[in-house]
């Protein structure tokens, strides 16, 4: 009876795959997979030898870029609340968004609009929310709706820095 081998697939960036593929030529490794398994086994052996705590291992993997920082989850939470806000820009959702900003990696905002000559035009304007590296996280409307009343909501972005003069 054949021995069943259990495998799983790990996804890595194509550029990294190509670098590894070039690096292992004429080294005795027959494939990128074989090399990656070797490196992971060595890494795990080192971890067990040093008896490192889980948090130390996670820190190292984060530093190497294998695990995204906790901000990614927090930015995902911010994006989810932004969707709620786009559907219903009421005071409650703005308050949730404001709390999520404080917990996220958000640092800057930029207002985008066609024209803002009256409150009705606020519906067409939005704020782009960026992280510290000025990478776009999400967009949100810049108005608040209370029944039929529409008003500006930029006050809820007060913990962020405006970059409209970028």
Structure description:
- The chain is α+β, with helices and mostly antiparallel strands.
- The chain has 2 domains: 50 residues, no CATH class; 93 residues, no CATH class.
- 42% of the residues lie in helices and 17% in strands.
- The chain is built from 5 helices and 6 strands; from the N terminus they run αααααββββββ.
- The strands form 2 sheets. The chain has a 4-stranded mixed sheet with strand order 3-2-1-6. A two-stranded antiparallel ribbon has the order 4-5.
- A hairpin with a 4-residue loop joins β2 and β3.
- α4 packs antiparallel against α5.
- The longest helix is centred in the first third of the chain and has 19 residues.
- It is elongated and about 70 Å long.
- The protein starts with 13 loop residues before the first helix and ends with a strand.
- The model has no long low-confidence stretch (mean pLDDT 78).
